Amino acid sequence: MSCLEQGSAGPVPRRRGWVLTLWLSLGAAVSLGITRFAYGLLLPPMRADLGWSYLLAGAMNMANAVGYLVGALTVPVLMRRYSPAAVLLGGTMLAALFMAAGGFLRVG
User: pLDDT tens-digit profile of 40-50?
Assistant: First the structure.
């Protein structure tokens, strides 16, 4: 087999294919694993440690779900305007920024 693999979009260097696979895997891990599903597991200890009421914890969970929905609805529009790599990198950076900012948020 040559160093090029034939794909539907034409030949792709094998190393570039592995790098692309890694980035797509990391994107899925960030978007689904960390920002979506892990949040539900962290919410009960956050509520207990921060002294949140069930109402406030529910509002935070709803804000997380609305943010996820807004992201899911805007990505197709962004992908038509920007390259997939730019959208992936921008989304990953925004997720990291908002998660870090959440650590400094004071409520009440």
Answer: 788 888 889 88
The tokens describing 91, both together, are: 């989304």
For the record, the structure tokens of 84 come out as 């997939």
Q: What is the pTM of this model?
A: 0.56
Please check whether residue 87 is in contact with residue 79, taking contact to mean a CB–CB distance below 8 angstroms.
yes
Ranges of beta strands (E only) in the chain are: 4-7, 10-13
Closest by CA to 87, choosing from 98, 100, 76, 99, is 76
The domain containing residue 87 runs over which residues?
A: 28-102
58 within domain boundaries: yes
| Count of domains observed in the chain | 1
75 Cβ contact list (under 8 Å, min separation 6): 87, 91
Q: Which H or E run contains 21? A: helix 14-28
